[in-house]
Write a structure and sequence with these properties.
Elements: H1 21-24, E1 49-52, E2 58-63, E3 69-76, H2 90-97, E4 101-102, E5 105-106, H3 110-114, E6 119-125, E7 130-137, H4 141-153, H5 161-179, H6 185-195, H7 210-215, H8 218-228, E8 234-240, H9 244-255, E9 278-284, E10 290-297, H10 303-316, H11 322-330, E11 334-342, E12 348-356, H12 362-379, H13 383-400, H14 410-421, H15 426-436, H16 439-449, E13 455-461, E14 519-522, E15 528-533, E16 539-547, H17 560-566, E17 571-572, E18 575-576, H18 577-587, E19 590-595, E20 599-607, H19 611-623, H20 629-648, H21 650-663, H22 679-684, H23 687-697, E21 704-709, H24 713-724, E22 749-754, E23 760-769, H25 777-789, H26 794-802, E24 806-813, E25 820-829, H27 833-849, H28 856-867, H29 870-873, H30 877-889, H31 896-905, H32 909-916, E26 925-930, H33 932-942, E27 946-950
Parallel strand pairs: 2-8, 9-13, 15-21, 22-26, 22-27
Antiparallel strand pairs: 1-2, 3-7, 3-8, 4-5, 6-7, 10-12, 10-13, 11-12, 14-15, 16-20, 16-21, 17-18, 19-20, 23-25, 23-26, 24-25
Amino acid sequence: MSPISPTSRARPRAAALALALTAVLGGGVAASAPAYAAAPKASVAIPYEEFTLPNGLRVIVHTDRKAPIVAVNLWYHVGSKNEQPGRTGFAHLFEHLMFQGSENHKGEFFAPFELVGVTDQNGTTNQDRTNYFQNVPTTALDMALWMESDRMGHLLGAIDQKTLDEQRGVVQNEKRQGENQPYGRRINAKMFEALYPVGHPYHWQTIGSMADLDAASLDDVKTWFRSWYGPNNAVLVLAGDIDLKTAKEKALRYFGDIPASATLKDMPTNIPKRAQDTRETVPDRVPQVRVYRAWPVAENGSKDSTLLTLLSQVLGGSASSRLDTRLVHQDKLADNVGTSVWNSEISGTFFITTTVKEGVDSAKVEKIVDEELQRLLTQGPTAEELDQAKTAIRADFVRGIERIGGFGGKSDVLAECAVYSGKPDCYREELETLLAATPESVRAAGQKWLGVGSHTLVVQPSDKPASSLPETAAAAPASAPAAVPAPDPKFKTVKSDVDRSAGVPVTQTFPALSFPTPQRGKLSNGMEVVLVERHEIPVVQLLMEFPGGYTADQGRKLGTASFAMSMLDEGAGDYGALQLAARKEALGAELGAGASLDSASISLSALKDKLDPSLDLFADVVRRPRFDAAEIERVRATWLAGIKQEKARPQTAALRVLPPLLYGADHAYAIPFTGSGTEASIASLTRDDLVAFHRDWLQPDKVRIVVVGDTSLKDIVPQLEKRFGDWKPAPNAPALPEVATVPRPKAPRVFLVDQPGAIQSNLYVGEVVPPTSDAGSIDFDFANGVLGGEFSSRLNMNLREDKHWAYGSYSGASNTKGQRPWIASAAVQSDKTVDSIKELKREIDAFTSGQTPITEAEVAKIRASNTLSLPGAYETANAVLGQVAGNLRYGRPDDYIVQYKARNDAMTPALAQAAAKTIDPAAVTWVVVGDLSKIEQPIRDLKLGEVQVVDADGKAAKK
């Protein structure tokens, strides 16, 4: 995905898309859901109370007792727009530095949180703000507030040159990682440099330039912190299992004695007035032309910004949008097209992004994009299009506020509104604007903003990666620190009784784990329904999961399962592909189908008041897919282009090559872990292949149905009976083949994939380990947590925090019915490739042999992370659904989570060390993707094992 594919950040569009390897493999966290207290039916409102401390810290409180957790969400109204040319990247660099401990807590910021079972913890920086968030057990709130207040008020003494150099290196590798991608971060930079003139606060990238990062001195970064990171420039939101009285007491106690800084003045709206359209062409190592077009538009929170979000949804924001209809479905000139609104504080940016089919003239595509845009600006959307867009956007918002924390959760919504508009409930005004919008008001907003003044950037396939282009410097790096502005005198401090010399408060008690017993019902044909009721928001989630998945491809064309399942919602019943997509949007439903290693599934997320028609559509997709020949060819062409994109991206290239090496070419799991198959197999698929897969493997006597949400057994079973009760198994349906057990290789092997011009090398090392059902799987996952399962685990602490050669390094094994793929990985700067391989090998060897034995402290950390997070980890219906489905998939009892917790509680260093021996360093397989002109011979000189150079298909590369 391009870096310029931002979803609209207007709060009603609060939804996020995440793609992870565990999802592809059908894995899941080995845990399940606690029981929650009943909560009132949710409406589109987030009740809150607020107060301001004497030092200027604004505190907003929202009570939600459904889980024994509190979201702590702290926003500083400081982002990259507050930097100066020559000092770019400081806000983001400081985000990293603030995770490095403080004057009264020596060590990683994450460490105390891991010991209490934190969930959803992170920090992010954008043009306008820096935020830090985490969900903690209610009993750990004092610890969380102590930690946040210590880094707000007591940070600078903990930052030394070593810490600065370490995090500078980490940030620079984060930058390299973003640039070492097709259509990477450098494209993003060029778009903003063109749209926003030199001197405009959005002209430079949030991550900064390499030159400015290199030049940043200790005095520079300390001056930056002293200037702006005071409580008077921050908003703290506490949401969840908390009330106003408790919030007041704790906020004042922990934050009240922190002095204010200078007050950062709000910047006025600054939307560039561009007198003409501009364009440029950029070469990149990509398989297809991609065309970006963008305009500076109305700022975040404005009425026009909301109207442009609606226009974006109609033009290119959904599968049934006008651009999708024209370019992807009708003319078949693009593999994908999308629009989005990047809603920033002083100016928004409207994007249209089109990936042109190979061999198609991009100028022709640009002309059609403009035709469709002008038609919309001239005629406006139809009433039906506008109603669909309103429903989809509102549904996204409702789903987002099921959570108290994280992106789009309730604490996030309240904080963003308070920081940007001053009103924590500004989302209500936006929703009112959205619902009151007319075709004419949307058309008028589009005409006002989407005229002359766009910038078009065409990415052309080339042997030269875009990362090789020189960075644009708006100014020479600063040579001396800026002056520190005077603190705002109107704010005062309050004496605190907190003795910070005593260290971080230790959490002594934790919420009890309570397991919900799923309810069970049965349809007349024997189909079993498993239900967990959740009434917090008016949404019902449903999953139908069938055994098989990629395993069912044995004896068939590789990729049949994945492709067949992807076709289910490309036309079903009376609906063609476009009509089905439009119907989904009109209902505010999310409906999808796919395959993983061991299963094929169809999912539905429906608004309760639209559940009946949503289930009608779901039943069509499950039982009556059309497999239209024209749609098969359209999807096939896009699918094949997607495979080429995967080969161009280093991470996905490795995940295509590795599975056949681990399992053998004819194994059920030898399909690329991206799920896309091979070009040859996808090209050879016929409609009969797809119909046969649907007939043979989607069987009502094998299905597992899980429902979680705002319904009851007495309501949902009759609704499902009406649509599925008469479904009979197909005669002579095949039995699912056993997943073959494969031997490990007799010696380590190394496979190299060339990525000429790469500025990083992507390192993968893998091995098969026993399946999820193995009695030792909990122990193995626990041991892996020590090696690479957490931020503070050995691999990441070495390659990121100690050496700062990588942005991150982790390891893990996804859940599977057959042998599991255990993989460790890191993306490292090219000149540290060999040293990084040495360190990975050293860490794995020392871990498995016991040369560096697993310690009691490491066991305590992983135990806490695995078990204390359970009461809060299943806050959402989707998380509950995933775990219940996992229990059914792997034959686990309903109280599996109790067994899981008990085994973790019983873990010892000796048991974990024994589990570590599951990995055999003498049988690992290495895959390295990088610039072989720089790294091949040094890797051969390591003599890790036999070295082979292969292409992105895993075949011997031609010399």
